[in-house]
């Protein structure tokens, strides 16, 4: 599944009652992003302090509910 497919899954998850799952997903994205940024250089790893600074300058979108859940 490509990036567009993953974005569709995330957007579909933005319904009422699913905020905690969205929040967890965002936290995992930050962890993976830090992991891969740390692998880019042999001289220094990406510390959590540096990652926080990066996120302050380049914030990820916050988890939010896009539409109310309505069962079919």
Describe this structure in words.
- It is a single chain.
- This protein is mainly α and 72 residues long.
- The chain has one domain (3-57).
- The protein has 3 helices and no strands.
- The protein has helices spanning 3-13, 19-38, 48-57.
- Residues 1-5 have low confidence and may be disordered.
Can you lay out the helices and strands and say which pair or pack?
Elements (H helix, E strand, L loop, with lengths): L2 H11 L5 H20 L9 H10 L15
Q: Which range does the strand content fall in?
A: under 5%
Give the % helix: 55-70%
Query: Mean pLDDT score, rounded?
Result: 76
Cα-atom radius of gyration: 15 Å
* Domain tally: 1
Helix count, DSSP H or I runs of 4 or more residues: 3
Instruction: Pick out the low-confidence regions.
Output: 1-5
Biggest sheet details: none
What shape does the CA trace take?
elongated
Order of helices and strands: HHH
| Structural class by sheet pairing and helices | mainly alpha
> What's the β-strand tally?
0
């Amino acid at each position: 599944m490509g990036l567009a497919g993953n974005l569709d899954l995330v957007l579909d998850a933005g319904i009422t009652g699913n905020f905690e799952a969205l929040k967890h997903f965002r936290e995992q994205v930050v962890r993976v992003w830090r992991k891969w940024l740390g692998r880019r250089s042999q001289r220094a790893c990406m510390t959590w302090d540096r990652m926080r600074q990066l996120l302050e300058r380049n914030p990820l979108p916050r988890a939010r509910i896009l539409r109310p859940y309505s069962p079919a």
